[in-house]
Amino acid sequence: MAVHLVLSLGSGILQLERKGTHSASLSFLRIRRGREGAPTLQCTETFAHKEGELQAALDRALVGVGLAEARSQAGAKLEVALGFQHSRVAVMTLAGLRETEANLSRAVEAWAQTRLNLNPHEHVLRWERLPRGGRYLVSCVRRDGLNHLREFTTQRRMQLASVRPAVLEALDAVNGPHRKDRLRRDLVWTEGEAPGSTAVAQVFAFAGGSLQCDWRGSMQSPDGLLRRLHASHALEPGELIRRSWPM
Fold it and tell me: What are phi and psi of 94, to 5 degrees?
């Protein structure tokens, strides 16, 4: 049976978890390996998200979850959740577009460049049509980071099972069970580098069983982003749901 790993890669935080066993976390100040909550390994180094440093950090994390040898890594499945430094997610609204694959591809690229200020050629773009209103949920994953992960898993004969923005899991969890009701809901999603740092936040509004719009920014108070979202889209506050990452 293949080993199943989940990697959370955020801004300055790497966390690798082996399902059913224990986890290893690499942050600004320490590597911590825990089984039943007991820290066993300390480190005082940092890493940047460059190819060599990221791969070295992943190798150390594999040691922390008991996969130091090449034979134990072979066949392991790796699911990757990406934070804001490596990915973006937002709601795109298009009106009057003839929805061919080519038209959508061009529209998403132009929208990512103007709305998100991203170079579409440096990102892998994916989109999902939302119910009603010509809206699409677009995810953008940095191509260089994806290539580094592919190279890392190929060299170790691991399987790169999935790579997706971490916030998508929260969106699925909020919207999935409530698709048939029409209640208003607001999701506040925050990501931070370290305790006490300025959080990066994104807020999402749900109505009529569907995701409607979003707003993103860096500020100490995510509630301020939520007020701006309500004001810009003339929305009444909904049921408030808060999620932070990494957990």
Answer: -125, 140
